[in-house]
Amino acid sequence: MNYTLNSIPERPVKPRERGFTMAMDKGLSIREVEDFLEVAGEYVDIVKLGWGTSFVTPNLKQKLEVYRAAGIPTYFGGTLFEAFIVRNQFDDYRRVLDEFGMTFAEVSDGSLEMPHDEKCEYIAKLSEQVTVLSEVGSKDAEKIIPPYMWIKLMQAELEAGAWKVIGEAREGGNVGLFRSTGEVRSGLVEEILTQIPFEKILWEAPQKAQQVWFIKLLGANVNLGNIAPSEVIPLETIRLGLRGDTFDHFLNMEKPC
Amino acid sequence: MNYTLNSIPERPVKPRERGFTMAMDKGLSIREVEDFLEVAGEYVDIVKLGWGTSFVTPNLKQKLEVYRAAGIPTYFGGTLFEAFIVRNQFDDYRRVLDEFGMTFAEVSDGSLEMPHDEKCEYIAKLSEQVTVLSEVGSKDAEKIIPPYMWIKLMQAELEAGAWKVIGEAREGGNVGLFRSTGEVRSGLVEEILTQIPFEKILWEAPQKAQQVWFIKLLGANVNLGNIAPSEVIPLETIRLGLRGDTFDHFLNMEKPC
Amino acid sequence: MNYTLNSIPERPVKPRERGFTMAMDKGLSIREVEDFLEVAGEYVDIVKLGWGTSFVTPNLKQKLEVYRAAGIPTYFGGTLFEAFIVRNQFDDYRRVLDEFGMTFAEVSDGSLEMPHDEKCEYIAKLSEQVTVLSEVGSKDAEKIIPPYMWIKLMQAELEAGAWKVIGEAREGGNVGLFRSTGEVRSGLVEEILTQIPFEKILWEAPQKAQQVWFIKLLGANVNLGNIAPSEVIPLETIRLGLRGDTFDHFLNMEKPC
């Protein structure tokens, strides 16, 4: 840190299981990645190349190399996995992961219908090849999943081999964990945490109000995802109580978490 | 493309009359333009220097040169044309276009009152000098133009020499083609297309929901404009069905358009 | 300017007391600062490193140097001052200002409770060391300050040594001067200006609609702050009547202000 402030919440160092930040790259140039990492390299733990953007970005191999050199793992968004599945091209997907040297992958079913057993099989198979993040929650605002079902799905996916499960929010933060207004479905989050370990969940929280909500409820070291590159520094200050939104949240705690 | 996916909508190559993307530069630096073109150069067909931003950006000549070297035409926003007209400086405007080597220009009447005959004369005169895009629709949310009038105006402007006509939306996407909520005036769009050829219209659609709406209605290769540079890659994935919003739109079509 | 347009509002040159623009850097990389200054260096008068972002950005000293070399003063956001105060570390704060060669500082009480006498003492003490901007208005949307109190607080802070007072809006523009909808509390602004000199106030106006509102009410050369770096050029065009929003505002004035 650039100077000393007392009573700042402790943050684990990388590699960490708690307090990590997943950022979303939806088409950065090489220099933009370098700029992002210059500023936020210490604070970002993993980067998702959003949905199918990796199909069209011409700088893909070189970009993956820049992240790799900085020690930041990357993975393709779950929608890309689904795009291969819906076309019956799972084997092609596995080859693509190898070809690009990917060590992480996401399994999701946000845009298609898939029996949950089948999803868990994909998690199991991909887990032999890479570290798997699996995502629960539909991108369709109409599909409401009740809390007990979120828990059941998450447990099954962790058992199938997922490293962490992701709570779906989309880039806009208006489905899954969130009401269409962007408001967090708070009872849902609390109930999930009675059954699933804190560090096993990565909460998608692209909007500031959502990040604040999770940090106030779950502490500085909640795992948060879908963060825009330019918002990683602002998020770090929210984690540390150095932005108005959480300014007094950590001050009177016996042990900042 | 970086890997092979089946049943992806076909996209024409440049120069194209359909499926083209107009992006808006509202003050990029030289390096930002280079970064933008590294990533999206293949997907962007023309760049508008938004409204009067070209008046104040100190890097103008050099920036135009970067776009030119990449084969991407540029033009000054229609509000700049209007700023010259309202000051009775049309001849100055023509000299400015020459001085900066512009090969495209926009004629619009979004911020001033102008008899339509006079607008068509400007289109005709400028067409002798450059390729003209003309814009229909007011920036004033209070001025509602009925569908038959949109059609009549567009037809007259094309006859006067406009290469394409633009449906006005502003950067914020809340006037002209759109209700103040950002919702598309869908009956209007459908009626326009009964009379004006598909490839002759460039729809301003700065917001993602609008892009999705046009692509679902008019296919992958609808002409869209006012796209932020960082949204050109996301837009391309929406065109290809590789983002959740259009994921299953192209899958069951006999002939993807 | 790149070409000549008649009847453009006059803008004072730097250093200026009126018509100045404060931009907010919330974690730019070195290259991003260079890009920002290439484009907008002439139009930005001072840069705030937002809230506590300076605590976590690894490139701080080098970044301050880039701004310094371009002749743009910088200061740490008021929330950082408050973070030191709430921890009883005021002397540390003064040392930090020295260590980083800061010549400006902000005194605010947006996130904590502080007797106004005490706030004025901080302004007085810091004024011996740096040029002080002080901020009036709570970040808490629930705390409504009546107009006579805004005036009283502003007068006292100017008397205590503040160079300018800032009207609080936060980055999101939804508290202080603004209703939760982002709408400006217009009666408040007008009443303040009956008592406090125009050039002594810096209005936070991060959203375009707010910038337009202030420029229409107070002219091209109102002091505006919390402007995103990429919005400095667009703001300049709004000041000059070269964007639709203020297109005809300056045209019929006898003396553009």
Which range does the strand content of chain A fall in? 5-15%
Poorly predicted ranges of chain A: none
Count of the separate structural domains of chain A: 1
Based on the structure given, which CATH architecture of chain A is correct? Alpha-Beta Barrel
* Mean pLDDT, all residues of chain A: 92
Mind telling me the C-alpha Rg of chain A? Answer: 18 Å
Might you state the CATH topology name of chain A? Answer: TIM Barrel
Largest interface: chains, residues each: A-C, 32 and 37 residues
Q: What oligomeric state is this?
A: homotrimer
Main β-sheet of chain A: number of strands, strand sense, barrel status?
A: 8 strands, parallel
General shape of chain A: globular
Name of the top-level CATH class of chain A: Alpha Beta
Helix coverage percent of chain A? 25-40%
Order of helices and strands of chain A: EHEHHEHHEHEHEHEHEH
Spatial order of the strands in the main sheet of chain A? 3-2-1-8-7-6-5-4
CATH homologous superfamily classification of chain A: Aldolase class I
Q: Could you walk me through the main structural features you see in this protein, from its secondary elements to its overall organization?
A:
Three copies of one chain form a homotrimer. Chain A is an alpha/beta fold. The first copy, chain A, has a single domain, classed as TIM Barrel, CATH 3.20.20. Helix content of chain A is 37%, strand content 13%. Chain A has ten helices and eight strands. Chain A has helices at 30-40, 53-56, 60-69, 78-86, 90-99, 116-127, 147-159, 186-193, 208-218, 232-239; strands spanning 21-25, 46-49, 74-76, 104-107, 131-136, 164-167, 201-204, 224-227. In chain A, helix 1 packs parallel to helix 3 and helix 7 crosses helix 8. The two termini of chain A are 19 Å apart. Chain A binds chain C through residues 1-7, 31, 34-36, 38-43, 208, 230, 232-234, 236-237, 240-244, 247-248, 251, and chain C through 26-32, 50-61, 79-80, 82-84, 86-87, 89, 92, 96, 99-100, 110-112, 139, 170, 172. Chains A, B, C: Belongs to the phosphosulfolactate synthase family.
